[in-house]
Design brief:
Elements (H helix, E strand, L loop, with lengths): L1 H17 L6 H33 L10 H23 L7 H28 L8 H16 L12 H9 L10
Helix pairs in contact: 1-2, 1-4, 1-6, 2-3, 2-5, 3-4
The structure holds fe (ii) ion (FE2) (2 copies).
One fe (ii) ion (FE2) binds next to helix 2, helix 3 and helix 4.
Length: about 180
């Protein structure tokens, strides 16, 4: 989970840092598409957590309600993600304005990043109930399978194949993002 959260943080950093640096129409087109992939990816992550991982964790003895705080946090930044999604889908490359995109990112990024750190703390805290981590690990692997099974519903492989993500975030954003 920490690795995937790290890729989201790196992704939003790349979006923020590159937003005013893209100049040509071709770069703007690619950049808008990268932003679309990032939003799809993180939305898919949170939907999968709420649909699969958190309910299964909460069925374990003593864990009822422990993930509620994370679900509440998802709600705090999803309106901002939806605004970003709308902007990067509906804006034509020739109309793209990096300042507008930055303003949208600034409206939710702090809450998002706080959540991405906080959820890891919640998971670490589950050790009290599952000292060797075996039960949580089993359920996490079920989540991974579910995410991969649904990967055909999104248009990228990057956030699912971690090696590709690490390449993607370390290089130019549009070079390694792959459409399937
Ligand atoms: Fe997560
Ligand atoms: Fe989450």
């Amino acid at each position: 989970m920490a690795v995937s959260h790290n890729t989201y943080i790196r992704g939003i950093n790349a979006i923020y840092r590159q937003s005013e640096g893209v100049k040509t129409l071709e770069d703007k087109k690619n950049f808008l598409q990268y932003c679309q992939f990032w939003v799809e990816s993180i939305t898919h992550h949170h939907d999968s957590e709420e649909e699969h991982f958190f309910p299964s964790l909460e069925k374990l003895p003593g864990m009822e309600g422990l993930m509620n705080i994370n679900i509440e946090q998802h709600k705090t930044f999803h309106p901002g993600l939806e605004r970003l999604d709308k902007y990067v889908r509906e804006t034509r490359p020739e109309d793209f304005d990096g300042k507008v995109l930055k303003e949208i990112v600034n409206s939710f990024a702090d809450k998002l990043v706080a959540h991405l750190h906080g959820e890891i703390e919640t998971l670490i805290g589950l050790q009290k109930h599952d000292p060797d981590g075996e039960e949580v690990k089993k359920l996490y692997l079920v989540l991974e399978k579910a995410i991969i099974a649904k990967s055909g519903l999104v248009r990228y492989t990057a956030e699912i194949c971690r090696e590709k993500v690490l390449l993607a975030v370390n290089e130019y954003f549009f070079v390694h993002t792959r459409i399937i």
